[in-house]
Amino acid sequence: MDRPELEDGARKILLTNLRRGTADWNGKEFSFVVPSLRGYPFQWFWDSCFHAIALTHLDLDQAKAELTTLMSSALPNGFIPHIIFWEMDKQPDFLARNIVGMTSPNYSATMQPPIIAYAVERVFQATGDEEFKQKALPVLTAYYRWLRLNRDPDDDGLIAVIQPEEAGTDCSPKYDEALGLEELSNQGFIAALRKVYAAYEPMRGDDRRILAADIFHFEDVLVNSIYCFGMRSLARLLGDSPEATEFNREADRTLNALLTKCWDEETGAFFDLSGVAETQVKVVTISSLMPLILDDLPRPIVERLVNRWVTSTKDFWLPYPLPSVPASDPKFMPGNPRGFIWRGPTWVNTNWFLSHALRRHGYAGLADTIVTKTMEAIEKSGYREYYEPYTGEGLGASNFGWSTLALDL
Ligand code: GLC
Questions:
Q1: What is the pLDDT of residues 304-358, one digit of tens each?
Q2: Which of 33, 116, 165 most suits a substitution to test ligand 1, by most atoms within 8 Å of the C-beta?
Q3: Taking a C-beta distance cutoff of 8 angstroms, is the pair 113, 223 a contact?
């Protein structure tokens, strides 16, 4: 597919999925792209950040509007929700069909991987808009401080998620044990999640209390890699200032904790920590590779991850790399039956993260293959939510927003 074709396809999605208006519940103007008109008709946190990055290639004003809308939903304490229901009437039965942790009818009480500072940095680089940056900075500093104060109770530099959807990799097999999943299906996942939600009911909104209750407490490697990556962006945006020093210091602490607590020398992979007791969850998934996005990851670890996992044809190096779960895992499901997502297929957002990461670490050939194969899959089936890793067949939602990150590969 040539560049104009790729851009045309992306432009169509980003325009069709665009929502503009004024919210009846807070009187604020919104202008953002929904991940998919049918499945996800509201604003999602990390999707929005990806949309803004894709939009830097098509429409700079809309890229700014996407992030400005997201940041306008920040609460006074700094928290930014993972879903904002700008127009609930677009799908009034959404909450009857999905479960979302809430303390307000208009947004979720949960987070998503904190990529926002990087997205702001990219939009600032593309536009040079100083006013946009100056408005974003207090929102970003408050947000990353909120994460530190509310999600890192043991103060080790690793933040914890309280339910799998917060990590953006909803049904990943790495959560099965902590969730006590009884049936390997989306229904089984929802049933297990309902128990967690029921236990949270009296505490919803008080994250420190929820984490202390130790019901689902995951120091997730993907989330923390992105947290660290985001704080580096924030420090660069802050320039030469005490706040930049603060966020660089915190990013150093997060990297250090990933290395000392999550790296498993025997397996050659990073593992999440479950519970207050911080038990390593020895299930390799795409998130085990995510620290590669950090430029200062020690070289021997980079090489180990690449040689042992990324390029292994029994694991991640499939015809359409990189699958969300390695093929060697007994629970690997390349077809993702009925919405049981993040258990095998290849996603464009993780390919975007990891192809850039591999290139920065000197693996241009591997990065090129990931890019070519991603483009091939998009050419076959359009911008889909995820792809079958052996055939490249598109699966899940059609006209899916963040797959337009292909413009930025
Ligand atoms: C699914 C994904 C999540 C994404 C959301 C909207 O829940 O797992 O990462 O943000 O869909 O696209």
A1: 999 999 999 999 999 999 999 999 999 999 998 788 999 999 999 999 999 999 9
A2: 165
A3: yes
